[in-house]
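INTERNAL AUDIT FORM
Audit reference: QA-55
Scope: verify that the stored structure record matches its stored sequence.
Auditor: D.O.
Record contents follow.
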Amino acid sequence: MAAKPGPDGPVAAKPGPDGPVAAKPGPDAPAADSPAKAPDKSTAESPTAGKPGSDKPVAAGGPVEAVAAGGPVEAVAAGGPVEAVAAAAKTADTKTDLKPANDPAAGIASSPQKTAKSGEPLPTERPPGVPPDPWTAFATAAERPPGWFRRTTRAGLRSLIHEYALVIYAGVLLAVALTWPTLRYPLHTLPQDIWDPSRQAWQIAWSGHILLTDPVRLWQANAFYPEPNSFAYGDSLLGYAPFGMIGEGPVAAVLRYNILFVLAHALLVIGGYALVRQLGAGRTGAAVAAVAFAYAPWRLAQEGHLDIVSAGAIPLALAMLARGHGWSLRRGFRPRRRHAGWAAAGWLLAVWQVSLGFSLGVPFLYVLGLILLVMIVVVPLRWFRRPVDRPVLGWRLLLVDTLGPLILVGVSALIAIPYFKAPAGGPAGTEIAFYSPPLRSLLIGPAESRIWGAPHEVPRSSLSWPAEMGLLPGFVLYALALAGLAFSIWTLRQRLLLLAGLVVTIILTLGTNFFDGRWTYLPLFGHLPASLGLRIPGRLMLWSTLLLAILAAGAVAEFVRRAEQVAEQRIPPWPGPWLRLATLLPLALVLLEGWNATAHPVAPTQPLAMRTVTGSMLVLPTSALTDQTIMLWSTSRFQPIANGAGGFAAGRQAVLRRNVEAFPDTETIQYLRSLRIDKVLLLRSEAAGTPWERAGDVPVDALGIRREDLDDAVIFYLTDPSAPAGQPTTPANPSAQPSLPANPFGQPSLPADPFAQPSLPADPFAQPSLQPPLAGTPSPQQSLPAGPSLPPTTTTPPPLTS
């Protein structure tokens, strides 16, 4: 280091023993053969660097650092002698001595060659045998994670306010409100009428009862005795069997039916919302679509058919399948959102939907088959064209998509076996043509609609079967779907595809009214048995309504998106009250159109005899409507009854009713014995105005049967009095039953019996007042039923067998 010049000239280097010694550079001076070191930027720019009393430590070094600690820098800069530097260091030492003992700057100045220490840290290593420092353990201990109870509680509370949890709450509340007064008197009333709901309440009760007691006899129901596979006479509602295991008797069956009726409407809303939300619509659009799908006016005519109302699992299963495959109509295929669990749940839910009935299950199977065909084509193409997306599905999802359809087809085929064994119905083409609605029916509301029922009464009367042909999905839904074709979040190609699907479903809904159905409805459904319930094309309006709802959701979602863009320019940036009201207006209008005027009649009270009498029996009076109530009454004991109604068994039951109109007489008794029927129960309160009004007053001693009078009924025991009690009397030649005369009532000569007396009065009931036969009077002529309510013996009734 070169000598610094003083005021009198340069100072020579001090000579050493071996010659002159060069000035020793300080610790921070750059080496002679190295470039000059740039000063530390942080130190140079610090406002407190080198100031007296600063808490920042100063780098240890030579006298320059001491000067920086508080000495006069000017002495060095002015080029004074080396002694000036020493004086400056001495002054710094003096100032350091004057500082307090605990001042960190004092320590730095007194030992300029050592790095200052702010304080001794806590020890990290302790001698052997010494317990660990408790402070160190406290400082390094990790926070204790929450236990399983706290985690479960937190997850449960979060799930209670999840979006879909709120949808479930809203769906249930909406179902209670829009089906009111179903739950006002749930133990005593039934929605729409007492006929079909009574039969379906019996179906749920029977499936639950027999699966608990004797599952092998599931399809051999107690009604329609002795017909085999009688539980397959219509949609079985087998998926509701777990609910049928709770409670017994008609009252429990009515309560169960009403609860399931309301929950089925709630599931329609939940399923519709989930599907449209998964496709990419917003919350408001999905809500409008769900309500429009669940409470379309045409559904109000189906309120008496729980199997048709129970369609909510269809959109929900489709939503789960789309979610499991990571697919959305708006965002396309997203591999990262795949989830095999959701896909498995979708296939299982599809199985449950098919188990409710084939009226909606078969079209649903067709739709799922079409989806599988599309996947079989699209997935390999994507695998070849986009290697970056490999694997497209993954082995878990591929396994689910293989096992799911196999289980679905297997369960469906197993349930369908008794349906194919059931007796054939009438010609398929004739029935389908009768129930096929015209095109104008898409604009006619049902009588159960409070908004469109009365205004559409005249056009509805022009329909051949108004109960199944008032197919209006809602004029608000039509308007929103039409707007969705031009104003939507869906792309143009997607809108055209939705429109094409809508046209196809409407063509199928028209049945044979579109080119006689030769290329549309009949190839798909005309060859299937009548027992599957596929001969009413108007029920395919379900799929047209779903597509209309998706189009409408696109329009509503786009409107909400535009409203949010306008709101972003406001201060504060959220929609005003009028703008919020405008976005909810479509939802309010759709709800208004779904307002129902459905009747809720009181279910008839079960007669006491139906709770006590057992064994195979025929309950009189019998008709196509009252038999459904009798089926409900049988849920206390599930005794075999020949009564039955509903489904496609009307022809067989009509034959039965005609053949027993003259009961009690020899021919009808013989006919009932051929059916292995032991008893006939006559309900006096129901017999007025029927052919059996006077049957309870006829003497039966000469007919080989016994009669027992109860408070509200009469029991006729068809067993032979000479036979042991409890043994049914069978015909003399059971194997010859198929060869019975086709017209036993019109035989020219009857076997000799007390009724063949030549002195029989022509009209014993022509007296002003008919008196019952006196006790102990053996003559049957006084009580022979020959009034106008009985068919004359010369009339030719239909054959005994169906």
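Auditor finding: record pair retrieved intact. DSSP finds 29 helices and ten strands in the chain.
Action required: none
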